[in-house]
Design goal:
Shape: elongated
Strand content: 35-45%
Low-confidence stretches: none
Number of helices: 5
Structural class: alpha+beta
Strand order of the largest sheet: 1-2-3-4
Largest sheet: 4 strands, antiparallel
Radius of gyration: 18 Å
Mean pLDDT: 90
Order of helices and strands: EEEHEEEEHEHHH
């Protein structure tokens, strides 16, 4: 099953930097610093992606992270009150993120890294719980994996060979 590419150049994308890490390499002449930026981009309307950029300067690392995030965008299916369609657990490495459907008026109940992904995706009502590892990169990727695993009622009906009324009703 191939993942369809989302053309990010046509979208009005917002970005959020989740974390910036500094790595130091000690060499004969002193210390070399390199930066890693974890960036989440999204249009606030069901499209979101995350990327990692590494460079010697922070702005350059953020730019590279944004470009990587645009390459790794996914489409999220939302219900009529801007929440996920069904409860799902996203896993990446040892990080797991539980994403629970929420009624209108709940708001976004999520921790830092998961919140960044959810806000960029345009989800307005959701409850989440980060389980396992609290590594920011793994939590972001686990959240994306969970959002990618959600299936719309139309998709479930097509996979089962039934009508949407049989699935929903």
């Amino acid at each position: 099953m191939r993942q369809e590419r989302i053309d990010a150049s046509q979208m009005e994308l917002l970005e959020k930097v989740v974390s910036i890490k500094r790595v130091t390499k000690v060499v004969k002449g002193g210390r070399n610093f390199k930066f890693t930026a974890l960036v989440v981009v999204g249009d606030g309307n069901g499209h979101v992606g995350a990327g990692l950029g590494k460079a010697t300067e922070i702005p350059e690392a953020i730019r590279k992270g944004r470009e990587d995030a645009m390459k790794n965008m996914i489409t999220v299916s939302l219900d009529n009150n801007s929440s996920v369609i069904h409860d799902v657990i996203g896993k990446f490495g040892s990080a797991s993120v539980l994403l629970k459907n929420a009624p209108d008026g709940t708001g976004v109940i999520a921790g830092g890294p998961a919140r960044a992904v959810i806000e960029m995706a345009g989800i307005k009502n959701i409850r989440t719980k980060s389980l396992g590892s609290n590594n920011k990169q793994n939590v972001v990727l686990a959240t994306l994996a969970g959002l990618k695993d959600t299936k719309s009622p139309e998709e479930v009906a097509r996979l089962r060979g039934k009508s949407i009324e049989e699935i929903v009703g």
